[in-house]
């Protein structure tokens, strides 16, 4: 009896010890028999079981969207680093300096000096004035050219091998390296090259951050969440104004604006999850389900056993009995977008709208920044002024839909731009023209905010970043063109901006509405889904 009892006790103790010491085996969702599972697409699982925007999504969204501030730092730093500082006459025997001169071009060398010294900006460092002034515009143009190339490259990589999180990590590493190297550029051409490389990596920051932040959000909350990302960009611009005030020399400013990328890599990236949608289309169901379980648990919900993720075309196809297909990676490229009759026209329209919107937004921004006021205060006020546009479009997004807002905001901007082209340039009319510019950029800031979420909803997961990358490339082409439009002077800039706004609104009229439609995963899914929507 004693032996039996002792043996029994030992057996129970061994069992208990095993349960404590041995790690719990994670479930293998891929091995669940199809007859015992219920397949759901991600949107349905978020809506029914996990929660569309709970504490998990809020934390993930905020952490991921901080990358937008990094993009603002690396993009807008040129406003301060490449500015033309003030100058003053140097008193000395035989000095013929005229302080009332409009520029230093006609003054004798040595009769004047830069306020703040030669290290205050790149213009003062390398004498980029008079006949060399075009080099400042060349730096800006090549930066945006780098952004255009980088958006396409990292758009493809984030859809394929690197994933959303891997691509975001890569561009932040490159930004930190190139930004710090820029601060020690020995000459103009090295500076030009490093700004191009910085643009290349910067082109993927907002793109990867936006998709990664919004893909785990449910369909009815995705619009407002997506449009809220731009608050981080405007906040980054406002913070940059303060950083530039603290670090008045251009070399110190480049270091100060690059350090946040390093902090983001070590303090934020480790707490960001990869997109479950990317895991799903790459055939990594277990990893996708693990994230969905974490979302449900963090939001206070429960994900029942037997529920498994599936691509939208598999979840909607009741006759599908090939379980192994859900375990195979599904990929796509921009070629697939062009080949599909559903997505090809969408890509053409999205690219056109992105181009015209960028010409207006950056063109009007340059006009406002060139006001003869304190540059730090001007940049701060411009950043703050964009935020009401973000709020209004976010509030109206789910009430009126994406399409009407895309048309309305562009035509709103176009009306005031065209008005600015016909008013005079004296006394009171100058104030009216400035007001037209502010209202024009107010409307186009709303379009910019809306355009990312609208474009993301127009394309399936397998090609979403590739399509967004193409639209971003078009926007960078518009950004490259904008300074040349501003140089035209007179009524032409406002006239060009007004025409671009009208054309962009007409292109948006041809796009389909995406409000309350599912976020498709595959090319087959969007083609079949859109066919069903047309039938109903």
UniProtKB/TrEMBL annotation:
GO CC, one annotated term: membrane
InterPro entries: MFS_dom, MFS_sugar_transport-like, MFS_trans_sf, Sugar_transporter_CS
Matches recorded under SUPFAM superfamilies: MFS general substrate transporter
GO MF annotation: an example: transmembrane transporter activity
Keyword Calcium: no
PROSITE patterns on file: MFS, SUGAR_TRANSPORT_1, SUGAR_TRANSPORT_2
Location within or outside the cell: Membrane
Primary localization: membrane
Topology versus the membrane: Multi-pass membrane protein
Listed transmembrane segments: 136-154, 166-185, 191-212, 224-247, 253-272, 347-369, 375-397, 404-426, 432-454
One Pfam family from the record: Sugar_tr
Keywords: Membrane, Transmembrane, Transmembrane helix, Transport
Residue ranges constituting the Major facilitator superfamily (MFS) profile domain according to the UniProt record: 60-516
Protein name as it appears in the record: Major facilitator superfamily (MFS) profile domain-containing protein
The species this protein was found in: Gossypium tomentosum
């Amino acid at each position: 009896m004693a032996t039996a009892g002792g043996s029994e006790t030992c057996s129970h103790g061994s069992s208990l010890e095993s349960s404590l010491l041995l790690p719990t085996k994670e479930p293998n969702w891929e091995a669940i028999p199809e007859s015992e599972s219920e397949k759901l697409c991600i949107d349905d699982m978020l809506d029914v079981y996990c929660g569309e925007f709970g504490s998990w999504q809020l934390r993930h969204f905020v952490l991921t969207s901080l990358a937008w501030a990094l993009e603002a730092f690396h993009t807008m730093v040129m406003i301060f680093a490449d500015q033309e500082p003030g100058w003053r006459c140097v008193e000395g025997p035989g000095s013929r300096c005229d302080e009332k001169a409009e520029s230093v071009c006609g003054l004798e060398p040595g009769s004047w000096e830069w306020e703040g010294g030669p290290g205050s900006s790149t213009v003062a460092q390398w004498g980029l004035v008079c006949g060399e002034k075009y080099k400042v515009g060349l730096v800006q143009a090549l930066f945006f050219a780098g952004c255009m190339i980088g958006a396409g490259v990292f758009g493809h990589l984030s859809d394929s091998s690197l994933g959303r999180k891997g691509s975001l990590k890569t561009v932040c590493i490159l930004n930190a390296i190139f930004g710090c190297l820029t601060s020690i550029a020995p000459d103009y051409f090295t500076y030009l090259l490093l700004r191009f490389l910085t643009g290349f990596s910067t082109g993927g920051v907002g793109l990867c951050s936006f998709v990664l932040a919004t893909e785990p959000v449910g369909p009815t909350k995705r619009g407002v969440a997506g449009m809220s990302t731009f608050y981080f960009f405007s906040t980054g611009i406002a913070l940059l104004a303060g950083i530039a005030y603290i670090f008045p020399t251009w070399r110190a400013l480049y270091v100060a604006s690059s350090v946040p990328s390093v902090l983001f890599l070590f303090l934020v990236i480790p707490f960001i999850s990869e997109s479950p949608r990317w895991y799903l289309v790459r055939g990594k169901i277990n990893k996708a389900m693990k994230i969905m379980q974490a979302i449900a648990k963090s939001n206070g919900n429960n994900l029942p056993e037997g529920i498994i993720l599936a691509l939208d075309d598999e979840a909607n196809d009741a006759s599908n009995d090939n379980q192994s297909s859900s375990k195979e990676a599904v990929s796509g490229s921009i070629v697939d977008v062009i080949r599909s009759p559903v997505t090809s026209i969408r890509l053409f329209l999205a690219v056109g709208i992105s181009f015209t919107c960028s010409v207006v937004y950056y063109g009007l921004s340059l006009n406002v920044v060139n006001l003869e006021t304190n540059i730090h205060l001007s940049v701060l006020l411009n950043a703050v002024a964009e935020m009401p546009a973000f709020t209004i479009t976010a509030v109206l997004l789910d009430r009126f839909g994406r399409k009407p807002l895309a048309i309305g905001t562009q035509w709103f901007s176009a009306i005031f731009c065209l008005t600015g082209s016909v008013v005079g340039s004296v006394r009171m009319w100058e104030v009216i023209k400035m007001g037209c510019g502010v209202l024009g950029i107010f409307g186009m800031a709303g379009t910019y905010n809306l355009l990312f979420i609208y474009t993301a909803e127009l394309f399936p997961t397998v090609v979403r970043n590739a399509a967004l990358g193409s639209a971003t490339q078009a926007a960078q082409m518009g950004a490259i063109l904008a300074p040349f439009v501003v140089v035209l002077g007179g009524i032409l800039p406002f006239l060009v901006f007004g025409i671009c706004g009208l054309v962009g609104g007409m292109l948006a009229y041809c796009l389909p509405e995406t409000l309350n439609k599912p976020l498709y995963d595959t090319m087959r899914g969007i083609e079949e889904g859109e066919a069903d929507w047309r039938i109903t």
